[in-house]
Amino acid sequence: MAYTDENRGIDPRLIKIEKAAAIAAPAAVKPEFKSAALDWLQRGLAVIPILPSAKTPAVKWDPWLAELSEDSIDKHWTQNPDHEVGFIVGDAMIVFDADTPQSIVALAQIEEAFDATPLWVHKTRRGEHHFFRRAPGTFAKSDAHSSTEHPERIDVKSGRSIVVLPPSTGKSVDMREVEHASELSEASQNLIDAVFRHNGRPEPRPAPECTSRPAGVEQQSAQQRDFELLIELLDPDCGYEEWRTILMAAHHTYGGDERGLEVVDNWSAKGKDYPGSAELSAKWKSFSGHSGATVTIASACKIAKDQGVDLGRIKGSSWETFQVVSTETVGQRESAISPSDQPRPIEADEKPVPIFSRYSLTGCSEELAKEVQAETFVLFPLALRGQATACYSSPNGGKTAVAISSTIGGIKAGLVDPQHVYYVNADDTSNGLLLKLKLAEKYGFHMLAPGHRNFDPTKLQAMLLQVCNDGTARETIVILDTVKKFTDLMDKSKVSGFTRVVREFVSHGGTLIGLAHVNKKKGQDGRSIHAGTTDIKDDFDCVYIIDVIDNGRESGTRIIEFNNEKRRGSVADTVRFSYRVGNGVSYEEMLESVAIVEATEADSGIPVTAVDLDAEAISVVEHSIRSGQCKKADLVKALGKHAGLSKRAAAALLERYTGHVSTLSRWNYEVRDHGSHCYSLLIEPAVMPGEGASDSEAADIVF
């Protein structure tokens, strides 16, 4: 029976619903492993025989690889037709192993983010293997995890790692669009690093040169091969003392080399009590120069027998070598040790610690501080940096106008870098998109839209994860208009998955503002309520519900009210905005007219505007300019001394009332020698305090 597969051409970046056809023959017929092994060899894989229904090699690695050929395969599988097939990945390839639905989705998102399309995918009992060719000069190492403890993590196979191949138990070809391993898609260092960061691991880099190696190098090499066969059969959750003994045995067997650390790290990561690579590495280094017991592979053999492992089932290994071993010293005593003896107890120099310790951030404050944002506004006074903020309103309820005008205001005030702002316009007409795009070009921020420049809303979550991985989340500000285009607000599981990604983005310092719609029916109090499940409200940092107070049909000025339903930080509890509406008012004019209405006087109904609130500070600036203190630095200093404003708030106020265009403008400046900004008063201020600001420029009121 020939070894074949069915190339269905399924895009591996999508979650596949339909299972691929199994490569194995019908249950009544045993697979021809020899034919499969020959086929995989021709496709460029270093095949190796595997014991049935196991991941254990049936031969010693190095001698087998040295003689690997069609003849050696034919000879071995003729004698052992039931041996299954695996291959040693080597340094030229890398295999990503996703064993859960969560890890399959995570791997697809990472591949999508780095434009890496796997051309060779195998199905396993629980998940998928994605095969890649490693780019020249890349660094990688094998990395394994407990699927129970970390279902989102992705196992990595490279170097001296074995991957079981079809038609072995539970393995089948899902997709293969190339004939030879040399034609596989290339895995860049960035892709590899992203997987390791996703797994919570440090980025793989070359290990330092081993400076010491015990005597008997040839014998040591044989022991290393035997140790790698042995450790695969040991339980990593065997208890602290046995676990530590196995680590010490590995340290002796490998002479403290980093290769031994990689072996025990991969093995230990399969257990529920895995302490993490950092803690295990620290333990490994502590064995160097250890003055207590010298623990050898004999102790690991004893633990294996205590766990019920039949060493005789591991063919090709010289376990008789370890029946009687050299002396293993404990303190000042010496004793002959055999596998039937109790392994020499290790001095109790450490006590077990609670499992919570492995996840502790204590000691990482400096690293975390790099991602934490200062409490500064992105949309004044609604949204802070480093937070996720949701604003709900009815269609045409003003949320977009306030979001865009406030963004422009932050840019003009110098508080927001436009190059880091990404406004995702996913709910607009072509004319509306064009109008907003021209504003984005004018003020320098980015505008994204589905269907343009290949932007796909389904990529958003992968993009958020990528900026977390590459360290750019802290500078990134994402505004989603509207959220329903990126998740189904009525599907709790989908919204929950979306908010988990948003929380990770925010935890790395990112800022996200989501605009959404309210329910068509109002609450019992007559106010609007959010549409969809409560997950956005539960998981975002701040949530506002927007109501229209005055639709502006008679006055020509619409007033909307933001009511806070959840807050973190010093954001407003209730704030009103006004802006011009009606025939003859262009979109840009509407944005320029956006103004904060701080409160409403019940008797007169006259809005108290931003000009009223800034009256004292305006007076300070005007007095300073008239007295000859007209440089920006002088005015900022005066505002700090006489109006109690910080330097940032003072600079924002100066910007707010600068220029000739807005009706709020009170002064302007010219650039003189050495780039200094020298201010002068306008002849007639366009608006006096108390007259309102219906035509104010949005950028001039936000700081």
Summarize the structure.
It contains 21 helices and 21 strands. It has 703 residues and is of the alpha/beta class.
Would you identify the CATH H-level superfamily of the largest domain? P-loop containing nucleotide triphosphate hydrolases
Category by helix and strand content: alpha/beta
CATH topology of the largest domain: Rossmann fold
- Mean of residue pLDDT? 78
Outline, from the CA principal axes? elongated
Distance between the terminal alpha carbons, to the nearest Å?
74 Å
Report strand %: 15-25%
Binned, the helix content reads 25-40%
Q: Tell me the number of helical segments per DSSP (H or I, 4 or more residues long).
A: 21
As a whole number of angstroms, the C-alpha radius of gyration is 33 Å
Number of structurally distinct domains: 4
Which CATH first-tier class of the largest domain would you pick?
A: Alpha Beta
Major sheet: 10 strands, mixed
CATH architecture of the largest domain: 3-Layer(aba) Sandwich
Low-confidence residue ranges = 1-28, 207-220, 323-350, 599-609, 684-703
Number of strands: 21
**What strand order characterises the main sheet?**
12-11-13-14-10-15-16-17-18-19
